[in-house]
Specification:
- The protein has 161 residues and is α/β, with parallel strands linked by helices.
- The longest helix is centred in the middle third of the chain and has 13 residues.
- It has a single domain, classed as Rossmann fold (3-Layer(aba) Sandwich), CATH 3.40.50.2300.
- The protein is built from 7 helices and 5 strands, in the order ααβαβαβαβαβα.
Amino acid sequence: MSTAILRRFPEGISRTGCDRPPRLRFFPAAAHHSARDPGVTQSPLIHIIDDDDAVRDSLGALLGACGLESVSYPSPLGFLAAPTWGRPGCVVTDVQMPEMTGLELLDRLAERKIALPVIVMTGRAGRDMAAQAVRRGAAAFLDKPFSPHQLLAAVRGAIGG
C-alpha cells in the first residue's frame, strides 16, 4: 500500500485492517446475479455520491485499498443518469448537496424501485436527520468525521459481506 494512502487514513488502514469483521449488525443482502447469466455472481460496485472532490477521492482510495470496486459521482442526478446502478452493490451518499439531498435521493430510489442499500453520511447530523434517513430506507447513517473502519463496516453490512 502506498504511503499516500496511509497519510490519508491516519488510523493506518492495512490489508489486515480492511479484513476486520464489522462491529455493526446489518441484515445481509440477498445474493446478486447477473441478468445475462443467472449462474454468474457479479462483484459489488460501491457508488460514492458527494459534491466534495476530496471526499470522493478519499473514500474511493479507501475502498480500493480494501479490494472493493467503486465509482464516484459529484451529484445524485449524475448517479441516477448512470447505467451502472443495475449492478449489485450499495450507495454511499452525503446529505447536503446542491442539486438534491441524500434524503431526496432515497425517495427517488424508492420511486424507481432501485433496490440498492444506501449509506447516508453527513457532517450536520442530528437525531431527527438520522431518523428521517432510516424511515426513508437508509441501510446505515454515519456522522462525519467517521473512521475508515466505521465506513467499511457499513459498506460490508450493506453488501452482505
